[in-house]
Specification:
It is a single chain. The chain has 259 residues and is α/β, with parallel strands linked by helices. Helices cover 40% and strands 18% of the residues. The strands form two sheets. Strands 1, 2, 3, 4, 5, 6, 7, 10 and 11 form a nine-stranded mixed sheet that branches. Strands 8-9 form a two-stranded antiparallel ribbon. A hairpin with a 2-residue loop joins strand 8 and strand 9. Helix 8 runs antiparallel to helix 9.
Amino acid sequence: MSAHPWFAGAATPRVLAHRGLVTPAEAAHGIVENSFAAVAAAHSAGAEYVESDCHLTADGVVVLFHDDDLSRVTGDPRPVAAVGLRELESLMSERGGLLTLAQALDAFPTVRFNLDVKAAGAAEPVGRLVAPHGARVLLTSFSDDRRRAALAAAEAAGRGIRPATSAGSATITRLVAALALRSRRGVRRALDGVDALQVPERQGRIRIVTPRLVAAAHANGVEVHVWTVNEPADMARLVDLGVDGIVTDRADLALRELH
C-alpha cells in the first residue's frame, strides 16, 4: 500500500466522512453538508478522514462546497463563483456555518482531508493552501487535469510533503479497459502516480468494484475506497471483498460497524 503519511497509522478499513456528518436529527435543525458543524460532528464521532469539495467564491476564497450553485443547499440559484465570501457566510450562518479550506485546515489539525477540486479555477489556490499540510491531505477530482494542476501547485509551493492523490475519471476508465484486456502493463500505467482509487461500486450497469480491480490495485500499492455507502450491510460486504475504505454520509454508523 501507499507509503504516503495520509495513510499511515490510521484505523482500517478507513471511514471517510462524506462532506462531514449530518445525522437526521441535525438535518432537522437545518445543518447541511460541508458546513463547519458537519465537519465538527464527523470529528466528534471519531472520523479520522473527512471527504469534502472545493469551490472558489467571487472574491477568490476556497470554500468547502459541493455543487456549482447554491440552489440545493440554500435555495439561492446563483453559482458559488458569483457570490462573495461575506454573503456566502451570511447564507450559511443558520445552516451550520460556512467553512473555508483555510479554516478547515486550521480548526481541525488532526483531521486528514480528502479534497475534491470541483472548479478549474480552484485548483491552483487549493494546491497552495494545502502545501504546508500535504502529509494529511489527499487531492482528487473527476478531472485528472484539475487534480494534476492542484498537485503541481502544492509541489511548486515547496512547503513539505506532496499531498496524496486518487485517480480521476479518465484514469479509472483506462484502468477498467486494461483490466478487461488483462493487460498488466496497462494497469501499471493507469495506476502510476496514484495512491488510491475512489470509485462507486457500480457506474450504471457496469460494475467497477470487482475482486480483479481490488487485487490489481493492491498489487500496485494502491488502495480502493468506495463511495457513497450508507448501509452497514453494504459496508461489511465491501470490506469482505477487500476494499480499504468506505466513503459514507453516516460515518457514525460506519465507525460502529467496521471498527
